[in-house]
């Protein structure tokens, strides 16, 4: 994941560009559920700045991390990214963390 300065620079550019779009749709950021708590905090710190403010978050994207909570060997052997039910615990925790870290920013849970 990019460092906090790189995130800041990216979000400033994206938010400024989005403001120039007439009748623009909501600007949402999709995050993977396997971000560490520190990475989650960095993202939240950046998107809470006025110049980087987005309209909401989408949580969570797929992950290649294989959590211990996988319920069967078939899931553990998948070579690509996992999504859906195997990530329920991880993504639920991420929704809670990001909601708290962003003071209630709108979140779409996936």
What can you tell me about this protein's structure?
Keywords: Flavoprotein, FMN, Oxidoreductase. It comes from Cryptolaemus montrouzieri. Pathway: Pyrimidine metabolism; UMP biosynthesis via de novo pathway. The model has no long low-confidence stretch (mean pLDDT 84). The chain has 4 helices and 3 strands; from the N terminus they run αβαβααβ. The protein has a 3-stranded parallel β-sheet with strand order 1-2-3, covered by helices on one side. The chain is 42% helix and 13% strand. The chain has a domain at 4-59 and 91-104.
Distance between the termini: 21 Å
The count of strands amounts to 3
**Proportion of β residues?**
5-15%
| Oligomerization state | single chain
Structural class: alpha/beta
Strand order of the largest sheet: 1-2-3
**If helices are DSSP runs of H or I spanning 4 or more residues, what is the number of helices?**
4
Stretches where pLDDT is under 50 for at least 5 consecutive residues are none
Determine Rg (CA atoms, Å).
15 Å
Shape call: globular
Pathway: Pyrimidine metabolism; UMP biosynthesis via de novo pathway
Pfam families: DHO_dh
Domain Dihydroorotate dehydrogenase catalytic: 4-109
GO molecular function: oxidoreductase activity
Quick recap:
The protein has 110 residues and is an alpha/beta fold. Helices cover 42% and strands 13% of the residues.
Per-chain topology:
Layout: H1 4-19, E1 28-32, H2 37-47, E2 56-61, H3 73-77, H4 88-101, E3 107-109
Parallel strand pairs: 1-2, 2-3
Helix pairs in contact: 1-2, 2-4
């Amino acid at each position: 994941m990019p460092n906090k300065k790189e995130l800041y620079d990216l979000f400033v550019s994206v938010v400024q560009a989005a403001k120039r779009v007439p009748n623009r749709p909501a600007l949402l950021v999709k995050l993977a559920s396997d971000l560490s708590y520190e990475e989650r905090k960095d993202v939240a710190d950046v998107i809470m700045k006025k110049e980087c403010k987005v309209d909401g978050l989408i949580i969570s994207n797929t992950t290649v991390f294989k959590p211990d909570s996988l319920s069967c060997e078939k899931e553990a052997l998948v070579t690509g990214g996992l999504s859906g039910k195997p990530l329920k615990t991880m993504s639920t925790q991420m929704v809670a963390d990001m909601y708290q870290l962003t003071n209630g920013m709108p979140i779409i849970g996936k």
